Amino acid sequence: MDKKDFKDMDLSAYFIGPKGENADLFKELTEKLINEHIGYRQNFNSDDENSISESEKITPEFNNAVVNMKETLDELSRKMRGGSIPWTTAGRYLAQMDNETLMPAILAYNFAILWNGNGVAWAGSPASTLMEEEVGQDLAKLNGYKKNGWGYVATDGSIANVSALWMARNVASIPFAVKEVCPELVEGKTEWELQNMSVKDSLDLLDATGEKKNDVKARSARSGQNLQKLGKWLVPSTMHYSWQKALDITGVGEDNLIVLPVDDHYRVDTDKLESIIQENVDKHIPILGVVAVVGSTEEGAVDHVDKFLKIRDKFRKQGVDFAIHVDAAYGGYGRTVYIDENGEFMPYDQLEDAFKKYGIFTENNQFLKKDVYNAYKAIGDTDSVTIDPHKMGYVPYDAGGLAIADTRMKDTLTYYAPYAFQEGVAVPASIGQFTLEGSKAAGSAAAVWTVNRMIPLNISGYGRLVARTLFAARRFADLFDGQKFEVKGKTIVSHVVYEPDYNMIDWVYKEEGNDSLKSMNDLTQALFEYTSSSKGGDLYNLDLLTSDSNFSPETYGDAPVKFIESLGIDGSEYHTEGKMEILRASMMSPWIYDDKSFNYWAPRITKALQGKFELISEHENIL
Question: What is the pairing mode between strands 287-293 and 232-236?
Fold first, then answer.
């Protein structure tokens, strides 16, 4: 087969479209796939009798059931049309990490579930299990885990995070289990040395146990032994709430959570990270692992993964080691912008030419930051990554993802059920014995597999799609930063909290001359309420949708203070009020990707905002 030239394929063909522009194509392909499925049913042992006769289909009872089905589906349609978020709009949805999903992903998902595949094992879904194995390799290679990497389609990012900690816990406990089962392999090692073995050394040790490997795994952390010897799990204050669940579920415990402070750009303060690790090491408290966030859920911030690795290298000289996990559930697909068609991470000085070739960032490479580039590049030297196709992969839920650098990590998790998979029984592919999930829809793996072969995980495919959203985020950040609205003699000014690392922007609204944080919080909160169903009316009739959040001292420390003071507000008010309200927009729309499209939407969004402030002035006593 000739090599496809993906850069010459119009990404717009892969979406149904905000106004259903590709509806006929969607219907055509849906009908084709359904017909092929029905044909399969009809031709399987074609001599078998029909189970539903023509005479049965004309009975009153059959007709009653048909009428009931149609009426119920009509009711479903009414409920969905009246109560769903209009996230498919090209430009008016400036809110959560949701947007239009890819047409081929929808088709593949719906087609796959017609076959009722259970994605847990080969016996239940041989086709999709093979697909999931291929997708796992795709995700591993995307993150730089080329030689020994492995991955799978997790139910969501929370499950992937739990699984990553589960693996890290079990791997770190291997040396203690070996000491119990094969003590000769760790003879002479102190407990501190056992607590500070690298992931690779622990897995090598497990391999060395030979026929006693299962006995060692049985005495690992899964037995409940030695959990308190494994140490601390360090996570940024920008963490997803799933990490607290993970610590609870795995038995590592929330008491072993250390929350890492962030700087005024909402990235981990790496100097403080190093100090925190050193403080624990000085007390002879081991570090189980450290999490870097790439694309935080509130800010889209990208931690300095490269600096995390340098810190680990520094501590290795002290005989201290720990796992590094990257929570890139949201931001992981950003790596595709830097990957060439051969799967290699491109040198920084070649990016501008590559972008011109592929028609992204067409003006120049102004939207790239060297430190963000360095962070993405460093992911390949970490131990594991959470990355969700159902976010920036534009695949329907539930399609999270987990990739690991060393495929042997998954072997510390294995549990076997005789009816699904048996140890030592060879099958072409197997996933479920290594994962937290049991039964799961085959549609998710099929959907991700399909789009990965149409939109490659490199600059020619997803790189072009992700770049659209980076363009939109930075253009709207420029629009909102300093934008002014005149309402009844008062001037309202918007301020972007920080320059985006990814496609998330956070901003606030402040009345000019009113230097009260409470007033700014009230105004920002009011704008959210009038751009949501809270006070904005029917969802379907809203001309603008946003989401909100807040930064509090409990979570963010003093990170917002510098920004607050830059607006002329006393920084002490942050602690008095206990929060800074923000508006938050994940700019995932694939339809604002050049000057023409931005110049179409910018005045419409500005007009919608003006209208909201006029409503606030009329109905709220805050202006």
Answer: parallel
Question: What does the block give as tokens for 444?
Answer: 């998710």
10 Å CB burial of residue 535 (0-12, 13-18, 19+) is middle
d(CA 391, CA 599): 26
Strands 490-496 and 484-487: antiparallel
Select from 157, 168, 166, 305 the least CA-distant residue to 240.
Answer: 157
Longest CA span, the chain: 83
Can 419 be counted among the known catalytic residues?
yes
Residue 549 has a CB neighbour count (10 Å cut-off) of: 16
In DSSP terms, 472 is beta-bridged to none
pLDDT per position as a tens digit, 382-431? 999 999 999 999 999 989 999 999 999 999 987 654 434 445 545 555 77
Distance CA(329)–CA(335), nearest Å, equals 12
Residue ranges of the alpha helices (H) in 367-456? 370-378, 442-454
Instruction: Answer yes or no: are the C-beta atoms of 108 and 450 closer than 8 Å.
Output: yes
Q: Which of 419, 509, 593, 600 is catalytic?
A: 419
CB neighbours of residue 508 within 10 Å: 25
Which of 447, 335, 318 lies closest to 382 in space, CA to CA?
Answer: 335
Whether pTM exceeds 0.85: yes
> To 10 degrees, the CA torsion angle through 104, 106, 107, 112?
120
Strand partners, 511: 492
Alpha helices per DSSP H over 408-542 = 442-454, 462-480, 517-530
CB 261 within 8 A of CB 237: yes
